Amino acid sequence: MRKPIIAGNWKMNKTLAEAQSFAEAVKGNVPSNDVVDAVIGSPALFLAPLASNLEGTDVKLAAQNCYFENAGAFTGENSPAAIADLGVQYVIIGHSERREYFHETDEDINKKAKAIFANGMTPIFCCGESLETYEAGQTAEWIEGQITNGLVDLTAEQVSSMVIAYEPIWAIGTGKSADANIADEICGVVRSTVEKLYGSDVASKVRIQYGGSVKPENIAEYMAKENVDGALVGGASLEAESFLALLEAVK
Ligand code: 13P
Q: Among residues 104, 129, 167, 221, which one is catalytic?
């Protein structure tokens, strides 16, 4: 049985005071992590204070990115070793916004995945196609390519424990969520790609999220699907009430 994982991706939003008041509002109110993993993907600036605000609670933290080296002359980057040292458990990598605006390649993302595992954390590895690719009927090949290139040289044990988020770019922040059957079908493509690469045992363990205009009102439709184990949520994760409602809907 795969445990559901609901992760908020705050993107570049909130001040420290706003982040901390969110943490105060959710911390005693999330379902037990025996039932669901509740994760907040905060800007790196707030990870240290949030880690202390949320210590001992069922809320886990994710960074939204990291570099693939642990230390050195890489001005402006964040070290995965330093992130792990804060008690952060997850790092989102390969988000389409990073691929598009910051020119991250599959190879960069693969290096980041390895660095995240080397530091004892878990990647939330994002994949997803553009509207053009979707309309051309090339989604499956596109996703298969991103997964195959992104997982190069990861071990079966690593892939079993990671999280892969399928986020069609055309559904992100547009209010136009993918139909739950499409989400299930493409999350199924992710799973069958993992199966081709690593076998059925690994494919049955890897957790796959859908992301793109997920809200408290529609999350149950996705979670009811066989291949969807959770959601990666932008806009609807920004308010404590809405984040808690997403978690309530899956527990
Ligand atoms: P929205 O939920 O705002 O569409 O964002 C999805 C997303 O990009 C999460 O990573």
A: 167
pLDDT at residue 21 in the model: 98
User: Does the domain made of 5-249 have the CATH classification 3.20.20.70?
Assistant: yes
Catalytic, 95? Answer yes
Which residues partner with 243 through β-bridges? none
Burial grade of 73 (CB within 10 A; 0-12, 13-18, 19 or more) = exposed
- pLDDT tens readout for residues 8-19: 999 999 999 999
**What pLDDT, in 10s, does the model give residues 27-40?**
999 999 999 999 99
**pTM over the 0.85 mark:** yes
Question: Which pLDDT value is given to residue 174?
Answer: 87
Lining ligand 1 with CB less than 6 A are: 9, 95, 167, 172-173, 211-214, 232-236
Can you say whether the dihedral through the CA atoms of 6, 11, 14, 17 is positive or negative? positive
Which atom of ligand 1 is nearest to 213's Cα? 4
Q: What are phi and psi of 163, to 5 degrees?
A: -120, 135
